[in-house]
Amino acid sequence: MPHVESEPIEAAESSGGLARLPFPPVTRSHILHCSYHYWHPLYRALTPKARLIPLTDPFISYLLADGIVLPPDQPRRSTLAGDDSGIETSDSEDDGEDEDPSADWLEIHNKIKDTIKELGGIVTPKLNWSAPKDATWIAVTNDLQCQTPNDIYLLLKSSDFITHDLEHAFDDTDLEPVDNLASEAIADHKKIPYYLVLRKYFNLNPSLEFRCFVRDRKLLCICQRDLNHFDFLFPMRDMLRSRIQSFFDDKLNDTFPDSNFVFDVYVPPPHERVWLIDINPWAIRTDPLLFSWLEILTMKDPAPLEEEVVRLSLRDESEVIGGAQHTASGRIEDCDVLEEENSDEGETSEIENISPLPEFRLVSRDDPEAYGFTAPQYSAHKLPRDVVDASQAGPGGMESFMRQWQDLLSKEFQQQQDESSGDDE
After folding, report:
1. End-to-end distance of the chain based on CA atoms, in angstroms?
2. pLDDT confidence of 357, banded at 50, 70, 90?
3. pTM of the model
């Protein structure tokens, strides 16, 4: 749940002086309802395989502590040179007397090791709301794959998104209303029941992951999560939209406690099943991706499907029946029947003005705004390019970079000393 900056300028320009986005009050109970530990038990059968590990105060303090000190039993030992590298291992030769940082949360450490083994040896981590996607630059694999507990700790401690979960979960929220389940956590953010979520790693195709916006229990709009153009998505749009709409109607609409929320889904081949990946708050902190929040908040509701049925019933009965027979092998729920039956141009125009399903926005090849989407995500949370390149080159590359950096600092310090001595003379 990384923080997304607000859009006051866009709102003011687009609405003739609107000072701020017209969000309804964001309650602390809503934030907690979007926490993985809350919604996962409700929809466990709809999600990829995952395990939740409750976190203790000592472990949370470890995540928030400055510097990165890893427990001694990691298989891949850091080879970073210098005392100022910021990353240490408690089994290094120079500081073998250092305390094991996992001593105060050894049960969690062992549970993480067991869970990694249970889930096939590779997992991806997240906390209640956020995954450390902004810290993948520091991982050997340059993604969220973790094979050891120390892989997980390194990502979590390097992530601004994780820090936001731990220290700013209730920013810009109202206290009321609350429910019984959330009341204790709402009273004091330090009592939020934090969990480490370890999800079994699988090869997720990012082009088939979609963000869905729900307002007043209506699926308002959908868009890609990966902000690149994919040709193959356009012929599939109606089918995917119908799959997602049915998933929302059958699984989420009547079961999630809040009427406004954002959820992410994954529709892998053969595109017959929809997986729930995440649920996000209806708040400025959630990235609207291909939309703007002003656009979403002021968007008209999709017209109910019943309105279209009424209009079709005004046509000749035999024509409608014939159309239904003609599309029996197709996807009637995708409204293909409307496209095939509307041979009259004027009548087509009338019915096309009704949108029975949510807007589904994809990145077009010729969209001039799409060219900016290829910029690296989370760049504001990353280190300079030289550091990223060095980390991708493996331990040797990072060691060489640190040595060059220390040499540069030493030369600069020596130059300052020489200049200071010259001035004194």
Report:
1. 58
2. confident
3. 0.69
